[in-house]
């Protein structure tokens, strides 16, 4: 891929100033997403994956005093330098859209689905009348394969099943044909049979529109079949990134290796799992060196310094002294 | 039979819908043995009735018909004293350790509460027991005087496990015991659950939607669809070769950490179907890729197959379908 990336995030930092201290939720994260590519961001809760996504959209938690640093370039334009008006009118929706985890809470229960799906079309003035907006909304529901969309527009969110609600949210997200779609745990709240359908839906949307997708999840199984590249986050930083096959077949960072071993997978008989001892570090006062060192079975004395990024070729990059030494 | 058994167990709820009163058949004629020392998993999608079954077993709900029996005696026929003894022997660990521990009690109080509900014990005995339980679940002795908010999710789940063990139960109900925990913490808690099962000869009734976890932890499985068991048997058999089309569809849909594996989407799987108005005949026939005419009219009984498992499907019971 020689073309300029669709999204280029460089040294992104998002620090939340809370009463008990400064939480370095995102602490120097860099990655890129190309057109038509899916990047999976994998990490456990508190690793900063959701905060990374919210930073791209400049949606900080309002109750906290947050500070954003670094650059987030979309088609070469730094989103962190734009005014709030530009973000609202030109970026959120037409360029970057987000699907959040829980389709129950991301839809307003007192408005019909038609009111909500037609919203983006009216807000971004893609249509002139409410009637046109409703027609566009019906078309949107059809794109996410909701049966009899005209009739469903008049329904309220509670009349939809969980999977159908997630389709509705997806229809809203792709309403303005965004260049980048951020899906934050889009299937976590869904049954396994429905998960596959939503994944297939995202894949077909990408094939039609060449949209770049960032898929955020804690589950390494879900992203395996859908992503082109994976970035593994731990304690506010990306510690390993690479093509999906390199990450699964040849993980280099001990945390990535441990994550792949510590989860039960289908086809495994009863046996003890290789548990990762300890807990993730506190992000108010994270360790100076490698943040996984305290839990790492291969810890060395050099791990007290933060390991440099080592490029293993083919864009497989890992921050670990084990790789740096070779 | 010793231990727990569900006999023809049904639980219906009356709800008000837009068309007047209606009946939700949450659990419909479930027969299931939970042999001592085993881990029996209830598997199914949300709304299939697995949590209602757990509530019936914990006697938090009363069956509409049928019974939960313990050592051969129905819970409904037990005297107050027998029920108290039953509750001592059947404990539970819930999904969310942030909700299941009282934030205003110290860990010591949390763990001793069940003991004090059943016995009179002096302080020294209680303290010794708390120390012992904390050691079993891998927490330091000083944890006893801290409050739940001072612990992480995994540690809280350890406290919940210590509380469940406090009365030396025979059976523990595990309702999604690790799904609220961080990925890197799950294995620790899973290993602990396996260790204490071995150490104390516990029987587990596991409720989980994560099939990989179920395969990992359970010895027997009951697959539930809209309140009824559609397939049950030894875990290994079912995961190796599922016989019921629903079990097959469930297992096919599970993603794997393998970029070359593509989970199969079951066609037509949208709404689970509703326990409010279950379809006629086999409840699964609307979503079943092998549905035949008979499936629309007759509900297949659960029959025993040659390998000892049971399944409810016309493909397995009647004569093989005529070749076309």
What does this structure look like?
The complex is a heterodimer of chains A (326) and B (324). By secondary structure, chain A is an alpha/beta fold. Chain A has two domains: 7-95 and 178-270, Rossmann fold, CATH 3.40.50; 106-177, no CATH class. Chain A has eleven helices and twelve strands. Chain A has helices at residues 49-56, 84-91, 113-123, 130-143, 149-152, 162-173, 192-209, 220-224, 244-249, 254-262, 321-325; strands at residues 7-18, 21-33, 38-42, 65-74, 77-78, 96-99, 180-184, 212-217, 229-234, 237-243, 309-311, 317-319. In chain A, the strands form two sheets. In chain A, strands 6-7-8-3-9-10-12-11 form an eight-stranded mixed beta sheet. A four-stranded antiparallel beta sheet of chain A has the order 2-1-4-5. In chain A, strand 1 (7-18) and strand 2 (21-33) form a beta hairpin. Chain A is globular, with a radius of gyration of 21 Å. Chain B is α/β, with parallel strands linked by helices. Chain B has a single domain, classed as P-loop containing nucleotide triphosphate hydrolases (Rossmann fold, 3-Layer(aba) Sandwich). Chain B is built from eleven helices and twelve strands. In chain B, the strands form two sheets. Chain B has an eight-stranded mixed beta sheet, with helices on both faces. Chain B has a four-stranded antiparallel beta sheet with strand order 2-1-4-5. In chain B, a hairpin with a 2-residue loop joins strand 1 (4-17) and strand 2 (20-34). The longest helix of chain B is centred in the middle third of the chain and has 18 residues, at 183-200. The termini of chain B are far apart. Classes of the chains: A alpha/beta (326), B alpha/beta (324).
């Amino acid at each position: 891929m020689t073309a300029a990336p669709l999204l280029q995030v460089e040294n992104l930092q998002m620090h939340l100033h809370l009463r008990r201290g400064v939480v370095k939720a995102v602490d120097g994260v860099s990655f890129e997403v190309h057109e038509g590519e899916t990047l999976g961001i994998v990490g456990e809760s508190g690793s900063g994956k959701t905060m990374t996504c919210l930073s791209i959209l400049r949606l900080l938690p309002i109750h906290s005093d947050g500070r954003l640093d670094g650059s987030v370039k979309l088609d070469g334009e730094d989103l962190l330098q734009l005014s709030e008006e530009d973000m609202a009118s030109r970026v959120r929706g037409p360029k970057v859209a987000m699907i959040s985890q829980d389709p129950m809470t991301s839809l307003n229960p007192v408005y019909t689905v038609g009111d909500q799906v037609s919203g983006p079309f009216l807000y971004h003035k893609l249509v002139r009348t409410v009637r046109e907006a409703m027609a566009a909304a019906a078309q949107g529901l059809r794109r996410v394969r909701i049966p009899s969309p005209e009739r469903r527009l008049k329904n309220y969110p509670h009349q939809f099943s969980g999977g159908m609600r997630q389709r509705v949210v997806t229809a809203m997200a792709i309403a303005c044909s965004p260049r980048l779609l951020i899906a934050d745990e889009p299937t976590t709240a869904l049954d396994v049979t429905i998960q596959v359908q939503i994944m297939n839906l995202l894949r077909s949307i990408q094939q039609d529109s060449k949209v770049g997708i960032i898929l955020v999840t804690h589950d390494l199984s879900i992203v395996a079949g859908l992503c082109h590249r994976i970035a593994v986050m731990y304690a506010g930083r990306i510690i390993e990134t690479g093509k999906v096959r390199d990450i699964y077949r040849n993980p280099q960072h001990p945390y990535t290796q441990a994550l792949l071993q510590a989860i039960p997978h289908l086809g495994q008989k009863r046996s003890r799992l290789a548990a990762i001892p300890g807990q993730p570090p506190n992000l108010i006062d994270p360790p100076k060196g490698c943040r996984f060192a305290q839990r790492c079975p291969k810890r060395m004395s050099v791990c007290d310094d933060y390991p440099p990024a080592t490029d293993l070729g083919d864009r497989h990059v890992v921050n670990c002294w084990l790789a740096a030494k070779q | 039979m010793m231990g727990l058994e569900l006999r023809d167990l049904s639980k219906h709820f009356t709800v008000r819908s837009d068309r007047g009163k209606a009946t939700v058949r949450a659990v419909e004629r479930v027969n299931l043995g939970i042999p001592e020392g085993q881990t029996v998993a209830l598997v199914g999608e949300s709304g299939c009735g697995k949590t209602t079954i757990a509530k019936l077993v914990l006697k938090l709900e009363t069956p509409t018909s049928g019974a939960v029996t313990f050592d051969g005696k129905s819970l409904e026929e037990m005297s107050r004293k027998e029920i108290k003894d039953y509750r001592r022997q059947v404990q539970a660990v819930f999904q969310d350790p942030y909700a299941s521990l009282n934030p205003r009690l110290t860990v010591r109080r949390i763990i001793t509460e069940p003991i004090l509900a059943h016995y009179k014990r002096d302080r020294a005995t209680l303290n010794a027991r708390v120390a012992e339980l904390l050691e079993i679940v891998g927490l330091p002795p000083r944890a006893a005087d801290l409050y739940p908010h001072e612990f992480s999710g995994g540690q809280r789940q350890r406290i919940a496990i210590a509380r469940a063990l406090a009365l030396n139960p025979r059976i523990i109900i595990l309702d999604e015991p690790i799904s609220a925990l961080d990925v890197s913490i799950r294995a620790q808690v899973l290993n602990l659950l396996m260790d204490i099962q071995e150490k104390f000869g516990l029987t587990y009734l596991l409720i989980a939607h994560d099939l990989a976890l179920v395969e990992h932890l359970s010895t027997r499985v009951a697959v539930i669809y809209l309140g009824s068991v559609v397939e049950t048997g030894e875990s290994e058999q079912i995961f190796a070769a599922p016989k019921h089309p629903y079990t097959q569809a469930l297992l096919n849909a599970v993603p794997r950490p393998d970029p070359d594996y593509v989970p199969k989407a079951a066609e037509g799987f949208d709404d689970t179907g509703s326990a409010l108005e279950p379809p006629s005949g086999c409840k699964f026939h609307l979503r079943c890729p092998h549905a035949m005419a008979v499936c629309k009219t007759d509900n297949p009984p659960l029959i025993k197959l040659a390998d000892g498992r049971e399944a409810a499907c016309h493909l397995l019971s009647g004569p093989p379908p005529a070749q076309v």
